[in-house]
Design brief:
Layout (H helix, E strand, L loop, with lengths): L9 E5 L7 E8 L13 H10 L9 E5 L8 E9 L5 H17 L4 E5 L12 H13 L20 E5 L3 H29 L7 H15 L2 E5 L1 H6 L3 H7 L7 E7 L7 E12 L19 H15 L5 E11 L11 E3 L5 E3 L7 H12 L6 E6 L4 H6 L4 E5 L2 H13 L4 E3 L17 E2 L8 H10 L8 E5 L23 H13 L3
Parallel strand pairs: 1-6, 2-4, 2-5, 5-6, 9-10, 9-13, 12-16, 13-17, 14-15
Antiparallel strand pairs: 3-4, 7-8, 8-10, 11-12, 14-17
The structure holds ligand BES, manganese (II) ion and zinc ion (ZN).
Length: 508
C-alpha cells in the first residue's frame, strides 16, 4: 500500500525566452483605466488592445490571444494585475491563480512566464517578492485528485513552466524561492490528497502507513500507537470515539528535531476518517463530506513536512489521531460517562461532538513532549461556518502573546483567521450533573466557542495553546483563486510552517 508520488509541474528559471506554446504576460492598468504598454516583445499587440479597450488589465481578468505565427509562442496569455499602486502580495498571488486557471482551461502544455513585466514603476526592489508571489499563485492550484479513476489520468495542466527574466540577479535569487514554492505545493498536495481520500481506503491504518513513507522521505521520526498503546496511555476518550468502528484507531506521532532547537511546537490534528455522528447520527444529506473530517490531521501533516523542508530551527512534533465515528452495537451511547487521560470524566451528551473527545486526550498527551506551545487543528464545528463563513478560520486560545504570533504567521501568508473568545463563562454550559463535564449542550448557542472551551480543560497551566477550527476553510473553498475549487484546500499549511520558523527565530 504505497502511494503514487505527489505530482507537481516541471519548473525552471531562464534568462532567455525558450520556444513555448504560450507566453504569459502580466499587465498593469494605468490611472485612466487602460492597459499599460510596457517595453517588451508584445508592446505592439498591447498598444492595439489598449486602443480598442479589448483588454484593460482590470483585476481580475485574463485574455488569451492566438498569435498566428507572429511571435515566438503560439499564444499569449495576458494577466490583469490592476493598478500597480494597489498591488498587495495577495493580489499578485491571486492574479497568478487566475492565470493558472486560464492556462488549464486553454489546455496549454508549455508556458513561459515573463517575470520582468511584474516590475512596473516600482523599480527592481520589489522584483523578487513579486515574482515569488506570482509563482505561488500560479502553482498552488496545481492539484488534481485522480487516484480513484479506473484508468490512469495524466495531470491536465501545463507540463513545463519556464520563468523568464533578463535580469541575471533576479534569475539567481528567484531559483531557490521557486524551489520553496514547489515544496510548499508538495506539502499542501499531501494535505489535499489525505483530505480527499474516501474513508473505505483512507482508514486509520492507511494514514499510519502513509505517514511512515513520508517520514522516511522527509527525515522525520515516526511512531505509531495502536489501540492497545492508547489504552496503556489511558486515552479513554480517544478510544470511546472509535469503539463503534470495526477499524482500529491509530495515533501517528511525527517529529522534526533539529539538533540545536530551543523550542518545541506541538501540532495536534483531528483525524476522524469518517464522522457518521455515531448513535447521534447525522442526516444523510451531504454526509459523504464527512470523509474530510480528518483534514485537521492532514493539515498538521502538510505543515510538519514543509517545516522539515524549510529546516526550521524549532522542534516540531505532530500528533495525529485517526479513528472512525460509527454507530453500532459497541458504539458509545448518549449519557455514557468516560474518563479522559487526565483523569477528568466526561458525560457524552452527543456522540457527534466526537472531535473534542479525541483531541482532549491528544492534547493532554501533547504535554509529554514538553511543548513551548501547542496548536490543534480540527474540523470541529459546523457553527464556525455560521460565525465566520468559509472565508476565515476560527481561532481560540489561552495566551495573548502566542495568539498574536499565530495571527502574525497567518497574516504573513495572507491566510484569514479570526479570534473568538475562550472565556471560562462559557464552561458553565459544559458542566454535567453526573460527570465533571459534558461534551455538548442541547442548544446551538456559541457552538464553536463551547468546543474550544471544552478543549481548554485539557491544557495545563502555563502552556500557550491555540485551537484552529477549520471546519469550513479546510475543504470546498471556491473564493481563493490559487487553491483547488473542490475538496481539501491545503489552507493553513503555510501558516503553521511559518509559525514554526518564527518561533525558532526569537529563541534568543
Ligand atoms: N465534524 C463535525 C463538524 C463539521 C460540520 C465539519 C460540518 C465540517 C462540516 C463535528 O464532529 C460535529 O459533528 N460537530 C457538531 C457538534 C455538536 C454536536 C455540538 C456540530 O457542529 O454540529
Ligand atoms: Mn461529529
Ligand atoms: Zn467530526
Amino acid at each position: 500500500m504505497s502511494k503514487a508520488p505527489v505530482k507537481v509541474p516541471n519548473c525552471s528559471v531562464k534568462t532567455a525566452s525558450p520556444a513555448v506554446e504560450v507566453d504569459v504576460l502580466p499587465v498593469f492598468q494605468d490611472a485612466s483605466g487602460k492597459a499599460v504598454v510596457a517595453k517588451n516583445a508584445y508592446a505592439k499587440t498591447l498598444e492595439r488592445l489598449r486602443k480598442s479597450a479589448a483588454f484593460t488589465a482590470k483585476f481580475p481578468s485574463t485574455q488569451f490571444l492566438r498569435l498566428a505565427g507572429k511571435g515566438k509562442a503560439e499564444s499569449l496569455c495576458l494577466v490583469a494585475m490592476g493598478v500597480e499602486k494597489e498591488l498587495a502580495s495577495d493580489r499578485i498571488r491571486s492574479a497568478g491563480g487566475h492565470a493558472w486557471a486560464r492556462l488549464v482551461a486553454e489546455k496549454a502544455d508549455s508556458v513561459a512566464v515573463h517575470l520582468d513585466a511584474l516590475v512596473g514603476a516600482s523599480g527592481e526592489a520589489s522584483a523578487l517578492s513579486r515574482a515569488t508571489a506570482f509563482a505561488e499563485g500560479l502553482l498552488y492550484g496545481a492539484y488534481q485528485f485522480n487516484e480513484h479513476k479506473s484508468k490512469p489520468v495524466d495531470a491536465a495542466w501545463p507540463k513545463t513552466i519556464t520563468f523568464v527574466t533578463k535580469n541575471a540577479k533576479l534569475a539567481k535569487d528567484f531559483a531557490p524561492e521557486l524551489k520553496l514554492v514547489l515544496e510548499a505545493l508538495r506539502a499542501m498536495n499531501v494535505t489535499r490528497d489525505w483530505s480527499n481520500q474516501p474513508s473505505n481506503t483512507g482508514t486509520p491504518e492507511y494514514y499510519a502507513a502513509e505517514a511512515k513513507i513520508f517520514a522516511k522521505e522527509y527525515g522525520l521520526k515516526c511512531t505509531i500507537l495502536g489501540e492497545a498503546e492508547a489504552k496503556r496511555e489511558k486515552m479513554g476518550l480517544f478510544l470511546a470515539v472509535g469503539q463503534g468502528s470495526e477499524r482500529e484507531g491509530k495515533i501517528v506521532i511525527l517529529e522534526h528535531a533539529p539538533a540545536k532547537a530551543k523550542k518545541t511546537l506541538v501540532l495536534v490534528g483531528k483525524g476522524v476518517t469518517f464522522d457518521s455522528g455515531g448513535i447521534s447520527i447525522k442526516p444523510s444529506m451531504r454526509m459523504e463530506e464527512m470523509k474530510h473530517d480528518m483534514t485537521g490531521a492532514a493539515t498538521c501533516m502538510g505543515a510538519i513536512l514543509l517545516a522539515a523542508k524549510l529546516k526550521v530551527p524549532t522542534r516540531v512534533v505532530a500528533i495525529l489521531g485517526f479513528t472512525e465515528n460509527m454507530p453500532s452495537g459497541t458504539a458509545i451511547q448518549p449519557g455514557n460517562v468516560v474518563a479522559a487521560r487526565n483523569g477528568k470524566t466526561v458525560e457524552i451528551i452527543n456522540t457527534d461532538a466526537e472531535g473534542r473527545l479525541i483531541l482532549a486526550d491528544l492534547l493532554d498527551y501533547a504535554h509529554e513532549f514538553k511543548p513551548s506551545a501547542i496548536v490543534n487543528v480540527a474540523t470541529l464545528t459546523g457553527a464556525v461556518g455560521v460565525a465566520l463563513g468559509k472565508q476565515c478560520c476560527g481561532l481560540m486560545g489561552n495566551d495573548e502573546s502566542f495568539m498574536s504570533q499565530v495571527k502574525a504567521a497567518a497574516k504573513s501568508k495572507d491566510e484569514k483567521v479570526w479570534e473568538l473568545p475562550c472565556w471560562d463563562e462559557y464552561f458553565e454550559d459544559m458542566r454535567s450533573d453526573t460527570a465533571d463535564m459534558r461534551n455538548s449542550c442541547n442548544d446551538s448557542m456559541g457552538g464553536t466557542i463551547r468546543g474550544g472551551v471544552f478543549l481548554k480543560q485539557f491544557i495545563r497551566k502555563g502552556t500557550p495553546w491555540v485551537h484552529m477550527d477549520i471546519a469550513y476553510t479546510g475543504n470546498g473553498v471556491t473564493h481563493i483563486p490559487y487553491f483547488p475549487k473542490k475538496g481539501g484546500t491545503g489552507a493553513h499549511v503555510r501558516t503553521l510552517a511559518a509559525l514554526a520558523l518564527e518561533m525558532g527565530s526569537d529563541d534568543a
